[in-house]
Protein: PNPLA domain-containing protein
Organism: Lates calcarifer
Amino acid sequence: NFMLTLREEIEEILPSDAHSLASDRLHVSITHSKSGKNHIVSRFTTREELIKALLASSFVPVYAGLKPVEFRGQTWIDGGFSDSLPILPVGRTITVSPFAGLQDVCPVHRGRFSTELRLANMNIMFSVENIKRLNQALFPPSTGSMQLLCEEGFNDAVRFLKREAWMS
């Protein structure tokens, strides 16, 4: 049970005051299961409410189950179905993606073709590498491969920080 396992892991790592720490700092993108409209949640009154928002933002129908996550009396699915990269109206939003594309932090595109796809407000490059990344997102590889992916993500973030002159 993917969602039960995810809930248990989230409960294990979140401190008791996580909802207070996250409010107005963490913005979670979710999609209303009936209307298909995107919603950004950034205020959490309880730890349980924060957990439900995180679960809703991780719910991919069929893959994660058949029943969308209930949050604040309504049912929700992953925000990526309606807006993969929401931009906040105030301040700078740093966009992060596991797919090579035009996001601030993302893998370098190494493909031979420069064909872009726009999916749910995210520009990604059409490449074999990105298809492999999608497969890895749905079917996680071995622990060793996951370690390499984490290191690549770290390097992507460092490259962004250097490009923005936030790090030397």
